[in-house]
Amino acid sequence: MSNDILVFAEQRGGKLHPAAAQIVTPARDLAGKTGGRVIACVIGGDLGAAVDAIDRAGVDAIVTVSDPSLEQYTATRYRSALAAVIAKVQPRIVLLPATFMGRDLAPRVAVRCNAALATDVVELTIGSGGGLDVRRPVYNGKASCRVQFPAGRLAIASIRANTFAAPGGGGGAARESLPFSAAPGDDRATFKELARAGGEVKDVTEADIIVSGGRSLKSEENFKILFDLAKALDAAVGASRAACDAGYQPHSRQVGLTGKTVTPALYIACGISGAIQHLAGMRGSKVIVAINTDKEAPIFKIADYCIVGDLFKVVPALTAEVRKLRGA
Ligand SMILES: Cc1cc2nc3c(=O)[nH]c(=O)nc-3n(C[C@H](O)[C@H](O)[C@H](O)COP(=O)(O)OP(=O)(O)OC[C@H]3O[C@@H](n4cnc5c(N)ncnc54)[C@H](O)[C@@H]3O)c2cc1C
Prior knowledge:
Elements: E1 5-8, E2 11-12, E3 15-16, H1 18-22, H2 24-34, E4 38-44, H3 50-56, E5 61-66, H4 75-89, E6 93-97, H5 100-112, E7 116-121, E8 123-126, E9 132-138, E10 143-148, E11 155-159, E12 174-178, E13 209-213, H6 224-233, E14 236-239, H7 241-245, E15 266-270, H8 276-282, E16 287-292, H9 299-302, E17 305-308, H10 311-326
Parallel strand pairs: 1-4, 1-6, 4-5, 5-12, 6-11, 7-11, 13-14, 13-15, 15-16, 16-17
Antiparallel strand pairs: 2-3, 8-9, 9-10
Helix pairs in contact: 4-5, 6-10
Bound molecules: flavin-adenine dinucleotide.
């Protein structure tokens, strides 16, 4: 086992997932403590610009596994490809982004490599015994638990998106490619069809700013005022479950316990009461702005900026101001 930290650089269609560059930050920090290197692993079909993008984030080396059969993600094939890279690199720690792909892949790779695993991690260090020591939120963020990995055994952790800022200033990492050879059982899951939800609109898990709406929007058409503000801010549009259940927005935009977990730099909650199940998905946002007619609404307890008012007046006024500031 080396002292190196391996980073799984998730990409789709040759585009690096933003959360992949972010995990280079804790990887660099850990490598500073172990005295090892940060090595990125990029897996896929045509890797396009993803390899250059992870290079720019500042890794020491990049291992690629490129094969037409890896063009679309399947858990079994990616597990075999990543396990092969781990066998080659012999890292001490493997970090993955806690995206849908990372959440699916990490446990499978841990089983294949007989490694210890912690998911959705927000803090990492090397403990006094030399093993990885992490913190992960539990019970919808109401508590957190510390996980100490034994030294001398491969440790795998998935890192919550938007917990760390992506570094930059890299380039010139050594590159190596490994051939892909499928393992027995890889074809138990095969790719059939990719059905994209949400069309061209930014996904809430990838956005720095989210404008989110609740039941009070009253219709799909009324969400247009949120899309206008989102466009002005280059933001994604999210929704409460009540809004999604009512059919105002697809469930792919639902934020919360049974929706997506988001931690953007700015979350603007418009006409959302702040039920505990909604907070579970967005309480980690850096700055929260809430607009609500009810000054007692629970969302105001966690909001940094509270606007008591009618969203149908406040949101268009905000959009106009943002457009003015941006000269649009
Ligand atoms: C097992 C389980 C899982 C759940 N998972 C989720 C989840 O993942 N995500 C989620 O969001 N919910 C989830 N819920 C539902 C949750 O409990 C709430 O019912 C839901 O979040 C309420 O949505 P809302 O805030 O849009 O609606 P409401 O609770 O009806 O709140 C509407 C708010 O809008 C305000 N308002 C009304 N008119 C205006 C106006 N013109 N301008 C400004 N404000 C106005 C009101 O004062 C009110 O605060 C879950 C529930 C359960 C039981």
